[in-house]
Input
Amino acid sequence: MAHINTVRRSIKVEEWIALRFGWLKRAVYREKIEITDLWIREGRQVGEMEYVYDSEEYIPLKKGDLCFAPDGTVFIKGTAQIPERLNGKKLWLSIHTAAEMIVKVNGKYVGGLDPNRDRLLLSPYIKGNKLDIEIEAYNRSKPDDERNPNAMPLRGCRQVFQGAYLSVVNEEIQNLVYDLTLFMDIIKSNCFSEDYRMLLQEELDKALNLINYETFEGVADAIKHIEEHIYSNKVYQGSGEVALVGHSHLDIAYYWRRIHTIEKNARTVLIQMRLMDQYPEFKYTHTQSYTFETLEKYYPELFEELKEKVASGQFEPVGAMYIEPDCNIPNAESLIRQCLYGQKYWREKFGITVDNVWLPDVFGNSWIMPQILSKSGVKYFVSNKMSTWNDTNKFPHNSFIWKGIDGSKVYASVPPTHFITWNMPSQIQENWDSYQDKREGGQTLSMYGYGDGGSGATEEMLELQRRFEKVSVMPKTEMMGGSEFLHRNFDGNEKLEEWDGELYLEMHRGCLTTKSDLKRYNRKLEIMLREAELRSVFRMLERETYPQEQLTENYKLVLLNQFHDILPGSHVHPVYVDAMNDYKKVEESLVDCIGEGEKYFNSLNFDRKHITFVPDTTAGDVIRNGIKGFYCSVEVPALSSISIDKFKLEQNLSDEDNELKHCFKYESLDEGIKLETPYYSTIINSDGSIRSLYDKELDREWVSGSFNKLSLYEDRPGVYDAWDILPSYTDCPCQTYVKESLKFINQTAECIEFSAILGTAASTWKLILRFFKNSRAIEVENDVDWHEKHKLAKMLFDCNVLSREIWCDTSAGFIKRETHKNTTWQQARFEVCHHKWCDISETGGGIALINEGKYGVGVDNQRISLSLLRSTVRPDVEADMGEHKFCYMIVPHAQDAVTAGINRMALEYNVPLAKGNFNNPFNKFDFKNLFLQAVKLSEDGTMVVVRLSEQDGCRGNLKFPQEVKILNMLEDVEKTATELEYKPFEIITIGIDLKSFVK
Amino acid sequence: MRNTVLWNLVFKKRKNSFQKGEHMKEYIENIIAPRVQGDGGWIEYEELDGSQLTVVLRGECSRCNKAALCMKWIEDRIYKDMGKTIQIKYRCVKPYFLDK
Output
């Protein structure tokens, strides 16, 4: 017999509940009176609080009018009269909008509106019946609106004005709506027991049956039913303890420019402060002292109110850093300055030193961070992404101790769920269920509040929170500030496990390479900042003025652009333009600070001895990155100036050197060129890749396969286009062809150059290979005209080296990572971060790659793949298009990277030999092998701050010629000493009183 | 992206030729496109045939259900700045991951 499936076509209980829920939501407003006297002026923001207007005059604004334009900001003003019958009633202003609005009434900031909230409470902030309304509104249609389904229909640069209303809320219906919101979330969630969810469904149905949906009589009965049959039911019990921390993630730039963040921040802060007035128990945390700076500068009235809220404990500044930077690419000194300037602001304005960093959205964290944090007054580290975004391995901890490269430790919280939640029971339960340190870690942390573009908590989130303790099936929840959560659950907790290593994010690996110009410029400016500060101190000690303000301003602008959606390249095109303009501005200012001279100054604290490029438009015989100059290998003593004259250098060549002039011999082959240099016998292919590199000195071959081989791959990671590289990218290589075969182009006293031009249909890639008379390094210059789409360009190096480790520079030491792929943890690390160099070595020797601004690198057994360029389309359609010039060096060497001095070579490569006449004021100091990372005037102007970084993994003792102050990284004096022991990878900060330099 | 402030100055100087409808490509690239890019959108000039202007929408614009309203705004801007009545035809080029 055929079986016919039964299909229920009549409305199901859950659908019927949802339908009535919708009716109740529509009835929340008891009365709405349209405000008809409104006027609008359209414009666009072009700078910080700077606007251009589409018209001089305001024009009338009515419901149904089209308003806003792409990237538009509008100003709305109007008046409203409160009818007498509404006197004494709780009055709201409601506008359903996609825009972000800051609202003033009668000259006072009353609140904010945005896609996540369509009303603000007026009554407590107004006197009298007449309302003068002023609204500043910035429209955006950023995809994150998709988190709130109510906002989706409103998306778009052009908006239809939905009307503005004086509204009265039916509080009874509103309360019922909050109850239903809470319980319907539980019904839909598999996190809760099926039995309980069935109970909820039955009782909610009964409660809703008590209401007449024509008149809405019976709402009170429904509320009573829920109280008696749901809230009072303690049969079903939940478990767990969850700390709820109100928070709003605010990207300094992302799908908006930095200039817009000033209003986003003001709106977010204003909204949260108004919620604190309504909900005195509400506590909220806000990060990034930069945002407080802009509030203070542009919204002083709000800032004064904020200070009161901070003093009362409701509004909590968290995060020691100036902004939430990317934590892979900035160097150690940048991360230190993030803390220095961040904490300086907190101390000056609020008298506090924040003991945590709050970095929910950063794309992984360098191993150098625990030391920097712990020496900057920070005990606690918070970052979410490893737990929620890892694509291969579940990060095994949520509450743990993080041990850094030098052994320093900080407490670490990696909450189990996303940092943007809306305080729903299912999200809270999921957080507890996912929490891995239940036995050791105490409470779990759940952040709530809309963000990315700010916005923060809503009334609904706080109303739900007031109900949680009545819901027996939920974990125990407690609202608190971030600092309280950290202190309560970490202090003295000896059960916490330890993680010794980087916090690598198994996602967003493409950000190490996307928008390569930004990475290159960031590195360049970090080096220039060091140079400028050091030279300024040297000049100051010769009685010149130290340009403190200029240097600080420049540093902060570079730090700002290290934000985790700027430097990684995950932003829209105008943000890139802004960043490049900022960089140019900083560069010009630093060139001015660095100054000039007749001689050349070595700002490194060790003798320069490697091959150096000296720009010289007159005597230059090589063009490098478009600049004319010459290569020389002259020794320049540490922190000293010497004269370099190319002609004199050549005249002074010894007979031996003269003989070496003829040290390069080459012959063309059918495919490529065979070359003899003082160091190598090499065969280079027509495409510039190296077929063979025989080392004469070490008597070994370095090449095993493709070496210096340009390889393009299809690069389509999906919606996170700028962010991600898929592990399968190697499956889809793309063809390049040789446009111009390798040929000899130039020979000088120091080097010989060959070039090859490769290409695709859209792009041209010129390689110049340089071999040197006095260096084993091989420089490869790349001059690229890049017009690909969805391509990743890598340079492959199959090394004849047997090593299970690749050593990668972190800027404050090196990290060793496995080259094999035994486990999923190693497999996931197919693209990792390195700074100036990476190296694979066996006992007798190895190969280092030294770069000037590349960060992404892959390793698979003996193959190193240096990531060079990408061509993504989201969020920026034109990312990386255009010209690129960059160089790197291949350095085969004896022994391991430390013994071979690779780090110093990389420092010399990255720190140019620039003109300047200086005497070394530290000539009595012996800094041993530590790198002089920074020399600056202290923030209080009383001492010279010297930062030394141990980068080889050695320990030792420093002896000072006089007593010095031992400082933390905030320049607080910890003790004085004439001797100091240092550990491997330790960063030491000392202060030398200015008066001790007086002659 | 060219400097918008600079371009506004250039625009003021070349207003006469803009008002003859010349330089439409530059107008789209330098006046309209930066505004559209501000929110993740992207617009490119494709061709001008009499009073019919064709543009290509990429990025967030390619999936916007209010694109027609935006095109109307551009038409109004062109009329205001150039005195020309233009009808805009647009085609959307979605990013590969949305091209279903």
Observations:
- Chain B has a mean pLDDT of 85.
- The longest helix of chain B spans residues 67-82.
